What does this fold into?
Amino acid sequence: MAKINAGNIVSVKAREILNARGFPTLEATVTLASGLCGRAEVPIGLHNSKFAAKDLYDGDHRRYQGKGMLLAANHINELIAPRLIGLSATSQREIDLLLIELDASSDRRQLGANTMIAVSLAVARAGAMFEKKELFQYLLDYYQLSGSAKIPIPLFNMFSGGHHADTNLDFKEFLLIPQPDSPTFTGTSCEGQAVRMVRAGAEVYHALGKILRENSYDSDTGIEGGYAPNMDSSLKALDLMMAAIISAGYEAKKDFVLGIDIGSNHLYDVSSKQYIFPLDNSYLSSQHLVGLYTEWLQKYPIIYLEDGLANDDWSTWREVTAALGDHLVLAGDELFASNLDRLRRGIAERAANAFVLKPNQIGTLTETIECAKLAERQHYQLVVSHRGGETNDDFIVDLAVALGAKYLKAGSLSRGERVAKYNRLMAIAAMMADNSTKQK
It folds into this structure.
């Protein structure tokens, strides 16, 4: 009998677990002959874009309002597992190709993107463990990624709105962004830069909560941990963030800048071709909306704008990118939906200058890396992002570090599934600092 390689897969199992919203998702476990186990938990988006790969749900409304994932788990246990037994966990491309062959549909509707990414990420974790490497280093080496591992800039969610919270705020997220080159974060204290950025972000977050309570606003939070009070206007949220930066002992522009995820698609009225902002009682054409963004840039230190226009408003995306692209990170999330064809169109249209990457919208790790590489070649800044229905899995942090992503979007500085990402970010930064010290 041939000797079994210690790195070969001997078991693949999946089960239904709960995400941070209390709805089902998948956990996949890949066990090697050596006894090592790689696990992955799949996040689920609040709303699945029509351009993204499709998750597979049971549709049985007697369980979890039809959102159960027993069928997806069964696909892994009975259909995928037998095909993976005996393969090496370090054959990531081969395994991902096998998963793609099992689901020939363009949108992964047969197996489900959730099914495929659960297995793909669990295999990667097992491979990293077998190679005795940290996950980010394993990904860097395996995919021969250009450049070196890099700590991304975290995008801290301070206010949650839109569909992300029960609040009247129109916009999905109001973001606090550290300026990594600030002396505050590049100083010589015992804390590393990443630790200082996270600490400062948490201090501003708590200062904001105090300001809200002192001004009789609710300090309840949305599903991603950002505060979710009812406000007088959208700009009031920005004013309060500016006040919180000062209250926490930092300076706007120097230490922190701001960002907004508009989530314009749910504000766009197709029939009138207008953007409707109920809170501010505004009805704006595409051109007027671009003018509004320009006004905001003059009043606030905003450097990041995500989904500032609707998915199919390509002509205005071109205009705003040409007009503001040199001064603003114009990130496409729902615009691209991590879809390679949508990204190619964005490149051709010269729309946006940043690409929001969500692995569970694609289906396999290898395809995720391909998307990121294309974005990098075309000089799009990369934003690796969490999802609304997150888990405590911190895979996206290692992925962001390995890809050299500019930004990591992981939610607010509360809620365990969000904080898990920032804790992993700080742990990786500490490892990189130790390695740098040893090499000197």
